[in-house]
Amino acid sequence: MSDETLCIQNICKTFAPGSPDSSMALDGVDLSLSAGELVTVIGSNGAGKSTLFNVIAGSLLPDRGQIILDGENITWQTEHRRARNIGRIFQDPRHGTAPDLTIEENLALMYSRATHRFPLALALRKKDRALFIETMAKLDMGLETRLKVPVGTLSGGQRQAVALLLATLVPPRLLLLDEHTAALDPVAAKKILSLTVEITKANRITTLMITHNIVCALETGNRTIMMHKGRIVMDFAGEDRRRMSVEELLEKYRKQVQENLDTDRLIFG
C-alpha cells in the first residue's frame, strides 16, 4: 500500500483566459506528499501559493491536471465534499469559526459534521463536553473553563487556536495552513506554530503550510517548497534543508529563476 497521501499532477490554472488580463496562476504543478509530512511553502506575491491551496480545497477548479488524495481522484469534487477530508485555516483568525456561537457550540458543530454521528442539537452530550474540555486544555490557554464564551470575544491568538482545534478535532487526511500565524503578534504566533507542529505530528496529519517567514519555513516540518510564477522551482528536505541558511536559499533561488526574490512581505527571522 502506498504511503503517498497527496499527489498533484500537471495542475494548471489561468485567470481571465483569452482576455488582455489573462494570467497563468499555476503552470503545470506536480507535487507529492507522503503521509504525515509537514511541508512549508514559500514564495513572493503572485507565486501561486494561495491559488494552489484553492485548487486543492476545491474553491477553484483547475483547467487541467488531477489531484489524488489517498488514492481517490478529487479533481472535480465540490469544495463541500472535499471539506470532509481537507481541513483549512486562513490568515484571518475570523475565518474558520462562527463568532456568535460559543467555543463549545463551535466544537460540537465541527464534531458532528466530521463524524456524521449526530446533529448539532444532540451533540452537546456529557461525554462530548468532557472531550471538548480535554481538547481545549491542551492549548494551555485556560479556554477549557470558558466553553460558554462566544468565539467572537476571544483574542486573535485564542481564536486561531480554536480554529486549529476545529480543523483537527477529527484529524483530516490533509491540512492546509494559509499563513495562519501571519496576523498574530509574535508571542501568539509562536504559540500557534508550536501547537500546529505538536498536533500534526501526534495525529500524523499530512500538512501544507504557507508562510512568509523564511526562517520558519526552513525550521518547521521536514520539507520546504518554493513557488515562482505558478511553478514549484525548489523542493528540498533532509540534510540540505537543515544546513541551508537564508542567504543560501536566496542565492539558490536567484540562480534557479534568474531574478531576485521579491522580499516585500517576507520575514527573515
Describe this structure in words.
- With 269 residues, this protein is of the alpha/beta class.
- It folds into two domains: 1-85 and 172-269, Rossmann fold, CATH 3.40.50; 94-171, no CATH class.
- It has nine helices and ten strands.
- The protein has a six-stranded mixed sheet with strand order 6-7-8-3-9-10, with helices on both faces. Strands 2-1-4-5 form a four-stranded antiparallel sheet, covered by helices on one side.
- β7 (174-178), α6 (186-202) and β8 (206-210) form a beta-alpha-beta unit.
- The radius of gyration is 19 Å and the shape is globular.
- It starts with a strand and ends in a 12-residue tail after the last helix.
Supply the key terms.
269 residues; 6-stranded mixed β-sheet; 24% strand; 9 helices; Rossmann fold; 4-stranded antiparallel β-sheet; 2 domains; 10 strands; alpha/beta; 34% helix
